[in-house]
Design a protein that fits this description.
With 46 residues, this protein is mostly helical. It has one helix and no strands. It starts with 10 loop residues before the first helix and ends with a helix. The protein is rod-shaped, with a radius of gyration of 20 Å.
């Protein structure tokens, strides 16, 4: 790809992309938090 063919994203496109990434990582954090809760409960009960 030639450098002059690269189009910068519009502010709206950037906002949409960043928001989607934030949503994705928030879901990952939720999953990890649930796993951590299960693990720590198991450790405390042992």
């Amino acid at each position: 790809m030639q450098e002059n063919q690269i189009q910068p994203l519009s502010p709206q496109e950037l906002f949409t992309q960043i928001t989607a990434e934030i949503d994705f990582y928030q879901q990952q954090i939720s999953i990890l938090n649930r796993q951590l809760t299960v693990l720590t409960r198991g450790a405390n009960n042992g």
